[in-house]
Structure prediction request, 130 residues.
Amino acid sequence: MTAVTGAERLRDGSCHFQRSRLIWMIAITFGMILLGWVTLWPSTIPYSYLGIFGTFLNYLVENHHKWVCYGFWVSWLIHVVEAFYGVKLCQSKGITDPAIQFQWFIQTLLFGYASFGLLVSYKPSAKKHY
Prediction:
């Protein structure tokens, strides 16, 4: 059995990882924090300081809080399912390094489709048979 070098593992795709775009990471983080704040601690939001956005958030809290709560928990459920499926997808695409699979899991858990979409679109290079 021969030892596989780091460069060979990078070439064969078993260590493929791609970070999500920063703009998506910022937008999703902001959205999930805001959705969590509106869901879990709506009384602490300074609506009057947020202008028309505060008015809109207050309207959602006062009239549709149940649906906001559903949206929050369903979005986390979707992120969790995507993260676990992402690990399975890693294995099927030949990404076998457990540390890299864990990176995909965490990134997909936090950023959802911004990460999962990168994994879905990843096309591993064809293996060479000699």
About this structure: The mean pLDDT is 89.
